[in-house]
Amino acid sequence: MARDYYGLLGVAQNATDQEIKRAYRKLARELHPDVNPETEAQEKFREVSAAYEVLSDPEKRRVVDLGGDPLESGGGGQGFSGAGFGGLGDVFEAFFGGMNSSGGARKPRGRVQPGADSLLRTRLSLQECAVGVTKHLTVDTAIICDLCTGSGTNGNSKPVRCETCGGAGEVQTIQRSFLGQVMTSRPCPTCRGAGETIPDPCRKCGGDGRVRSRREIAAPIPAGVASGMRVRLAAQGEVGPGGGPAGDLYVEIVEQPHDTYVRDGDDLHCTIRVPIVDAALGTTVVVDTILDGPVELTIPAGTQPGEVSVLRGHGMPKLRANSRGDLIAHLDIVIPTKLDSKQTDLLRKYKEMRGTERTEVLSAQSEHNSGLFARLRASFSGR
Ligand SMILES: [Zn+2]
Ligand SMILES: [Zn+2]
């Protein structure tokens, strides 16, 4: 039943958009009514214009590849007249590229429709976000009905033209207003715009061409994803009405908080508690990195409160890039709150040994203070 649109343009079924456009241009140059006024050529021109209209539109082309005919739905055997010389817009498009072919009669939207996209969320640990993971997910979507393979009909029965709208897919109502008569169109309530109805529907899907099903899928999640990102799985969404091509499935990442690290883009932050003596004498600490196992971090002698130590390249991998963020350790110098008498004596002795060192208010010009004022300025100007 479906017309051979590829054959009309003389291209293979896997032809690229460029090849289709080229084939149509060539035929249009030979057959265009301005060039070739013969009736036969005009009929042929209408046919190849219709074929081009269908194959240059990804949605219509998908319907053709599924064995349907996007120009026929509810058409009631009017041949190519529906496409007609509205095709002139397409000629301009083929010759000059990108002109809007506007106007022309509206066609019924057809029973076969592309399916909707679906979305589901999955929780990932920081580790999984860093390494990438194949997530096994249960999806609940419409799939094509295996009994009628999407046609929606029972056995060999066929859809028929809708009686309410005569196949147009819409109905007109005339309303009287103070401006005179106004005609409005709305989708046909009987066929819901399809232009055809199924008198003997499939026993399994009731004519929809699809059924709901729960299935397991393996979703490949790349390394470097973060909360809110969506991974697209093409054609794993809902199958459309009438068995139309499936939409896409999006898997949204929800990253779980980590015990040690707080993530900021590709960088990881952690806090390291450093007793005052270790800060003064210097020490090392082993950090369990997310991707490289234990790494030794050196805390140099004389480390000051608020200083950070950066492990370059030990953060999160950047998405689809061969580089990594940093691991930033914030050093929290801890001053003891409880001292026994022996410790107090030792610290008194230490104080004596330091001689001139004492508590004092600094001059605004001192090196130490300039750092403080720079920090204050930065915090007021929003960094
Ligand atoms: Zn109708
Ligand atoms: Zn069915």
Explain this structure to me?
With 383 residues, this protein is an alpha+beta fold. It is built from 9 helices and 15 strands. It has helices at residues 5-9, 17-31, 39-55, 58-65, 88-96, 126-131, 276-281, 341-354, 367-380; strands spanning 118-124, 133-144, 160-161, 170-177, 180-187, 196-197, 210-221, 230-233, 249-255, 262-264, 267-275, 283-289, 293-299, 308-311, 327-334. The strands form 6 sheets. A 4-stranded mixed sheet has the order 10-11-15-14. It has a 3-stranded mixed sheet with strand order 1-9-8. It has a two-stranded antiparallel ribbon with strand order 2-7. A hairpin with a 2-residue loop joins strand 4 and strand 5. Helix 2 (17-31) packs antiparallel against helix 3.
Work out the oligomeric state of the chains in this entry. single chain
**How would you spell out the order of helices and strands?**
HHHHHEHEEEEEEEEEEHEEEEHH
Q: Hey, roughly how much beta strand do the residues contain?
A: 25-35%
Radius of gyration over C-alpha positions, nearest whole angstrom: 36 Å
Determine the mean pLDDT: 85
Strands of the widest sheet, in order across it, are: 10-11-15-14
SSE topology sketch:
Elements: H1 5-9, H2 17-31, H3 39-55, H4 58-65, H5 88-96, E1 118-124, H6 126-131, E2 133-144, E3 160-161, E4 170-177, E5 180-187, E6 196-197, E7 210-221, E8 230-233, E9 249-255, E10 262-264, E11 267-275, H7 276-281, E12 283-289, E13 293-299, E14 308-311, E15 327-334, H8 341-354, H9 367-380
Parallel strand pairs: 1-9, 11-15
Antiparallel strand pairs: 2-7, 3-6, 4-5, 8-9, 10-11, 12-13, 14-15
Bound molecules: zinc ion (2 copies).
